[in-house]
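Q&A log
Question type: sequence-to-structure
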Amino acid sequence: MRRLLRSPRWAAGLIARVWRCCRRNPRRSIWIAATVSLLVAALLAMTFVSAPYYALYPGDVYSATGAVSSDSEPTYEPMSLIGFVTISAHQTETLWELVVAYLDGSATLQHEDVFNRGLTPQERRNTDARLMTRSQDVSVYVALAELGYPLPDPQVIVSGLIPCMPAADHIAVGDVITSVGGEPTSESAEVSAAVRSRAVGELVEFGIRPSGETESVLVEIRLGSSADECIDPPARTTVEEERPLLGVILANDVGDLEVDIDFATGNIAGPSAGLAFALSVVDLLTPGELTAGSPVAVTGTISPDGTVGNVGGIAQKVRAAERRNFRMMLVPEGQYEEAAAVASQALEIVEVSSMSEALDAVAPNWSRPERL
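Response status: OK
Response body:
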């Protein structure tokens, strides 16, 4: 059907048939011609007018336990499945594809500016790849913290920039933000909270350690606005809803750890598998089965302090877990209601706000091993 609509032959053929009909019955010609013209115009619009949206569909569930391995530590290969859940994003090219996605009950539509977070598609893909790498590093950090390993202090690294925002003149990708307004920062959430507490246009002092350097410098940056006209709608907020914006994408960096964990995740990107990876590393480095053999689907970002954060496409991820017949799924605390609203009774939705809560949910009898 889609190939047919992309060809102009169907329109020419339809018009020719209408013309022959109208010549045989002139009284009906005006109404028939008007109706067919509207129909042809509508179909042409649906076929050739672009629709700048992404359709988010349920993806799949991949084995986090099967994705982690280590040659530096004794390991205990898990037999049970801790799965991380994905979505499938399809860019709608025409109004026809947009309507099809709208009518699909499992899809959610997002404008391309929202989906790409103000970046170009390639910039967004590069950023998501970096976020996946950072998420893996942080997951190892959190798992090792649960297992009692000595760890360095984490730091906040810049993984992306919004080019039109003031920060782009002072900060580069790979720089570390060491303080905001004189207060030291070691996690991205601290930087975000500090920026949100300021006013649009306020001059704020940031401690910046350039990539590859050992010393920080103090830089004053005037905060931008989320309603700035340089931000493409609908990512741009209204003036009434504006908030201060630094214009950077942050990630948590944990430095070099004494335990090397390898990840095999292919081309999957983004930070939403952080919690699943952290649980899987614990399972890998401890004897026995963390989940007692029961498969568990997991979604949620992870911060160095073990905090579980929200993810995109939660409804699609719930549906993906159900399609794979999971009976339990861990979701971030702030997204429990949205997840429970689309889940069937066959899937138990468990909300967690931290790594310790996640461990309690999947392994209530688990206890931290002693390290001598």
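Response note: The longest helix spans residues 121-146.
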